[in-house]
Amino acid sequence: QSALSQPASVSGSPGQSITISCTGTSGDVGFYNYVSWYQQHPGKAPQLIIYDDINRPSGISNRFSGSKSGNTASLTISRLQAEDEADYYCSSYTSTNSVLFGGGTKLTVL
Amino acid sequence: QVQLRESGPGLVRPSGTLSLTCTVSGGSISGLTWWGWIRQPPGKGLEWVGFIYYTGSTNYNPSLKSRVTMSVDTSKNLFSLKLSSVTALDTAVYYCARSQRMIYEDHWGQGTLVTVFS
After folding, report:
1. pLDDT tens digit string along A7-27?
2. Does residue A104 belong to the interface with chain B, where contact is any CB pair within 8 Å?
3. Cβ–Cβ of B105/A93 closer than 8 Å?
4. B35 — phi, psi (to 5°)?
């Protein structure tokens, strides 16, 4: 199984909004409502920020939102802040009971 | 608050077996959640390794399945990973995590770097 496809990098200025895409297939992203997103700062463990396509865990800012259309899921970060600069990974449960991660997207806050 | 901590050798010889343990605190490993391992080669992305339930049921990444064994010790509140016949491609930071329904991981350990070297 191939990794989910994410852009290698995105950037934005403080206060702006950015969107990171995560493209899979009808056997993973498009099969269930089971896409999750993780934020990872350098040298740190990933942190869950979105689960089940659109839900935020307790304590995660409402500036983070998830959506999905067909085989592509998206993470939107609004009102960008310097602390949002990090790597972002999507993940999906698949129709074969496996888990796939995206290749990761590096977010730069200009 | 659930906390996880990985432990084990940081260096493994090629063709040897990588062995790691994840100790869970702040909650019982026998709850209605799965427990997993995810790895990250230096400078690269995340890769799912496998999950285990407290009953011993497992779900492994098909690409690693022939080399992976996971086990659980409910009396010590820990679970373990063994990866056999390692090569340099297995060099990575290995994270243990709590997984909800095998769908998302809501608690992670800090990670431990395992290097395969000769």
Report:
1. 999 999 999 999 999 999 999
2. yes
3. no
4. -130, 135
